[in-house]
Design goal:
With 265 residues, the protein is an alpha/beta fold. The protein has one domain: Vaccinia Virus protein VP39 (Rossmann fold), CATH 3.40.50.150. Helices cover 44% and strands 18% of the residues.
């Protein structure tokens, strides 16, 4: 994992070289629509306040939880125990990216949404509350954190989100074996090269042309950057978007040549 100083330099390089996020020079109608109608949509949807209130409760929760035989890998260290506040502070997706995912789920209306890495359920809530007709499946490997996520779903009145508890390496093939073809996938689990590539290869056999895959923390370590680079270069990937924290991968056949774009966000 890169140090905070290294991350500052990486972000500055991204900021200087990325496009300005206005869609200038983008020829794809789909990508221009994404930039104009999703990325730059500054509306405050009904669910945002509810979900962010739930986040704040987590960030103020000083209850200590033990992970038994499991551990949580945060942006700072590996934890086998800690307060909910400490774990949430280091592991939850920033609000602006959670809200971006909400807008994507709202705009593209995916019927099958899959999330790898539930954490405390904040991002899952953004995905589920964007479209109550969507079927959301989220997977979490740490039992006590999965229990906390279920509490969040109950408090927020979320009924279209199924939580699969257990090792994601085992849960993912189990979910896919029934012939499911996910429309939108968020990969926010084990941020290591081998795990990321394993998830991607498993999913590659089950996606369709309009599927959208989203990877988190793509620049936080050398191995995540390597995984992100290799994923971009895959033959089936036709367009990739770098938002620094998130990497978005598309497979649409309308892109006749492989393209990549970095956008300030």
């Amino acid at each position: 994992m890169y140090s905070p100083v290294q991350m500052v330099f990486k972000y500055l390089r991204y900021y200087v070289t990325a496009s300005n996020g206005k869609g200038h020079g983008v020829h794809s109608p789909f990508v221009f629509d994404f930039i104009d109608q999703v990325l730059n949509d500054d509306r405050q949807f009904y669910a945002f306040k509810q979900i962010e209130n739930a986040r704040q409760l987590l960030l103020n929760n000083q209850r200590i939880i033990e992970m038994a035989d499991s551990e949580v890998v945060t942006r700072k260290k590996r934890l086998t125990s800690g307060t909910i506040a400490e774990i949430a502070q280091s592991s939850l997706m920033p609000a602006k990216f959670g809200q971006l995912l909400f807008r994507m789920a709202d705009r593209y209306a995916p019927s099958q949404i899959l999330e790898l890495g539930t954490s405390f359920g904040v991002t899952s809530s953004y995905l589920a509350m964007a479209n109550e007709n969507a079927s959301v499946t989220t997977m979490e490997g740490v039992k006590v954190i999965a229990a906390s996520a279920r509490e969040q779903f109950k408090k927020l009145g979320i009924r279209n989100c199924r939580l699969m508890e257990g090792n994601i390496n085992e849960a993912l093939p189990q979910w896919l074996k029934d012939g499911r073809e996910p429309d939108l996938v968020l990969i926010d689990a084990n941020h290591r090269y081998e795990s990321t590539m394993y998830y991607f290869r498993q999913l590659l056999e089950h996606i369709h042309d309009n599927s959208i895959l989203i990877f988190t923390r793509i620049h936080e370590s050398a191995e995540m950057e390597q995984a992100w680079k290799e994923i971009q270069e895959m033959e089936t990937v036709t367009f990739s978007i770098d938002l620094f924290y998130l990497g978005i991968v598309l497979f649409r056949k309308e892109f006749h040549t492989k393209q990549h774009i970095s956008i300030r966000f």
